[in-house]
Specification:
This protein has 33 helices and eight strands. The chain is mainly alpha-helical. The longest helix has 26 residues.
Length: about 725
């Protein structure tokens, strides 16, 4: 590189992916942004479309309603109702996917789970997911349905989007989820959503397929000549399926797997099964249930076992690793004990059998889900064919699978997170391989969060209390990074209740301290302080000096956030001495850094500099480069405050390199903010504006309105031709 520096040869060779920059001598900072295209940033959440048979009239009705709404510059809201298995979602997906060219702003999708065993989804949860899909950082997602709904309508007012609300329970569940602007929303439900008439809802009721269309669907499923050569039997079969597409596909899949079997054989079997279900007076869905029963009876024994045991899974979708867990297959041993398992049963092959039988929906990336009727059927078969003890053991294996994998992810995200040994059931424990590194771990946790939350809640009711608090504990580092405050609050409330029910004092303290950090992030400083103080009392009663000293640091943070600097300073100073004495040098360094930050806020710059330098030395010694960079940022701000901009720039630039690397957005913003002030003091107006603008973007992204407003004021001053009023004028 030195030859290029001296003006010699500037050459780029090899394969280059993405943008490249070639330059000679560069003075000052260089920031290169390679943002995604607008297409990549938009939400495209609709599941893939499936084959649609003979729904032309319904699609035309929906399209006429949309066109009329567009002429009036109104939003288009429609509801599709009908029996389970009649094809409501297939119709919705076929129509909405076709609208993509006219609605380039994105597609939002939510399964509202009207038929789920745990009950319908809370609209607040759906709104949180929608807001994140629309680009709202987790930290900026408001609390409460009303505030979330208001922000959602504001964000969608000028977009062109479509929204699919699948399997709704009531109109009340749907109303907060209606977007703003002239957008399209389609709701599917087994009920006629007449309650949405005031919102302009247009109702389409879906009837079962006509015999000719059902026969066409059967022929497409079989993909051979049996329908053509056995037309009467084909008509009889689809009649027994009541014209329900799901039943036709399930029955057809069973026949397709047996190419030599005549359709009449299936007709006889389905006739007998329909008679049994009719005698049991099952309402509405007996055509589907009869087909499901026959398909279940025709499965190989291990595939049938997997099918019914998957009915124990508490979530709506799952990865392939769950199949190994429910079967008791031998894991890799990294999460807990291994057992003998059944080496003959390959979970992946059995999932293929269920998918081929149309009993599972493959949603890509080794992930699957049940149609809601199929899930209920699988649950019923588990209740019929498995003992209560076996169902409990299966749930424990599922819970252990998620706990072991979440613990592995916890270590990847934060290797320094104090880890209490996990307790597992009799095993085997199957741990999923999500890849290597922090990003892979965070992505797995993000994808599986609904399942992890479902396990935490279910574990409380099944008596697996240790799972409830341990899984919440494993999610701590993830919540610190991704800021999903709703889930943080709920998981730790469940975990805290479980720990108390167990009488496990140390577990209770972990839930209080980690949960308290979540409350602090949510802005509930009073509740956070209450939780930290309760943990302190428990640690003190147990004579746990280290735990008590750690809570002093947490309590100091709560007082600092509340503006009570004297109380915060006392707690930080005490913790900075006690934590190293108790053996935790890193926590002692953090307490010293917090104390220095308070001294800086008070304007006591020499004391702040001594504390920040001591903290940085300690944190580097324990290999905590991130927090050492935070200390360097504080040192830079202190040097800026006492009129030494050159020293300030050295500290801040070094810190910035580390903070960018770990994507620490708030701390990066603080370093940039101070570097902007350095440039402003030197009269480097454009450089200052660049630093300030980047800092402002980051402050907004992490929901720090106070610092953001300060940066806006400095930008306004520069735009008006003003300059800084003096070094460190912010204090």
């Amino acid at each position: 590189m030195r030859g290029q520096e001296w003006g010699g040869h500037n050459e780029l060779s090899g394969v280059v992916h993405g943008p490249s920059v070639q330059a000679a001598v560069v003075h000052g900072d260089v920031h290169i942004r390679t943002g995604e295209t607008a297409e990549q940033q938009l939400p495209w959440q609709l599941p893939p479309a499936v084959r649609l048979t003979d729904r032309t009239a319904e699609v035309e009705r929906l399209e006429r309603h949309r066109a009329l709404a567009a002429q009036r510059a109104h939003s288009a809201l429609a509801t599709v109702s009908g029996l389970g298995g009649v094809g409501k979602t297939a119709l919705a997906l076929a129509w909405l996917h076709g609208l993509r060219p006219d609605f380039p702003g994105g597609q939002l999708y939510a399964d509202l789970c009207a038929q789920a065993p745990t009950g319908p989804v809370d609209p607040a949860q759906v709104l949180g997911s929608f807001l994140r899909g629309l680009g709202v950082p987790p930290q900026q997602v408001p609390d409460g349905v009303a505030d979330r709904s208001a922000l959602y309508r504001s964000l969608t007012a000028d977009r062109r989007i479509v929204v699919l609300l699948d399997d709704a329970a009531t109109a009340a569940q749907v109303r907060p989820l209606l977007p703003g602007g002239s957008n399209v929303t389609l709701v599917t439900s087994r009920r006629r959503m007449s309650g949405l008439a005031l919102e302009g809802g247009y109702q389409v009721h879906l009837e079962p397929l006509a015999p000719e269309a059902a026969v066409e669907l059967l022929a497409a499923t079989l993909a051979d000549d049996r329908v053509a050569t056995q037309p009467d039997d084909a008509r009889a079969l689809v009649g027994l399926c009541a014209g329900l597409p799901l039943a036709v596909r399930v029955a057809g899949a069973r026949l397709a797997a047996r190419p030599q079997r005549r359709i009449t054989t299936m007709v006889r079997a389905l006739t007998a099964e329909r008679g049994r279900l009719d005698a049991l007076a099952i309402d509405g869905d007996h055509g589907v249930r009869a087909a499901l029963d026959l398909s279940y009876q025709g499965l190989p024994a291990e595939a049938a076992r997997l099918y019914r045991l998957l009915g124990v899974h508490p979530g709506t979708e799952f990865g392939g690793g769950v199949a190994g867990a429910v079967l008791g297959a031998v894991g890799d041993g990294s999460g807990g004990e291994s057992g003998s398992g059944d080496a003959r049963a390959d979970p992946g092959e059995l999932l293929d059998v269920l998918h081929d039988a149309n009993l599972l929906i493959d949603i890509g990336e080794d992930r699957y889900r049940f149609h809601d009727l199929v899930r209920l059927h699988a649950m019923g078969k588990a209740a019929e064919d498995e003992s209560a003890a076996e169902r409990a053991a299966v749930f424990r294996r599922i819970a252990d699978h998620y706990l072991a994998t979440a613990t592995r992810a916890e270590r990847a995200v934060d290797p320094r997170h104090p880890l209490r040994e996990r307790s597992y059931g009799p095993g085997p424990v199957v741990t999923e391989d999500f890849g290597d590194g922090t990003r892979a771990a965070l992505d797995w946790l993000e994808r599986e969060l609904p399942n992890l939350m479902a396990v935490i809640r279910r574990a409380r009711t099944t008596g697996d209390l240790d799972v409830s608090w341990q899984l919440a504990d494993a999610l701590g580092p993830y919540f610190l990074r991704r800021k999903h405050y709703d889930a943080w609050h709920t998981s730790h409330a469940e975990g805290l209740a479980a720990a108390r029910e167990l009488g496990d004092g140390p577990a209770e303290c972990r839930m209080l301290t980690s949960g308290g950090q979540g409350e602090l992030g949510r802005g509930d400083t009073a509740r956070a302080l209450e939780m930290f103080e309760e943990a302190a009392r428990l640690f003190e009663a147990a004579s746990d000096e280290l735990g008590y000293a750690r809570t002093s640091n947490y309590r100091g943070l709560a007082h600092q956030r509340a503006g009570q600097l004297d109380e915060a300073a006392q707690l930080f100073e005490w913790a900075a001495v006690e934590l190293p004495r108790c053996g935790d040098l890193r926590a002692g360094g953090l307490a010293r850094l917090n104390a220095a930050d308070v001294e800086f806020a008070r304007g006591r710059l020499p004391q702040a500099a001594d504390g920040a330098d001591e903290a940085r030395t300690t944190l580097l010694a324990v290999d905590d480069s991130y927090n050492a960079a935070r200390a360097a940022t504080l040192l830079g701000r202190i040097r800026l405050g006492d009129g030494r901009p050159d020293e300030a720039e050295r500290w801040l630039s070094g810190a910035l390199a580390v903070l960018r690397e770990v994507a620490a957005h708030y701390e990066t913003a603080r370093a940039l903010d101070a570097l902007g002030e350095v440039a402003e003091l030197r009269g480097q107006r454009e450089l200052a504006q660049g630093h300030y603008r980047e800092a402002l973007d980051l402050y907004v992204g992490v929901n720090r309105p106070g610092p953001a407003e300060g940066v806006r004021e400095r930008l306004r001053r520069l735009d008006e031709g003003g300059t800084a009023s003096g070094p460190g004028d912010r204090g």
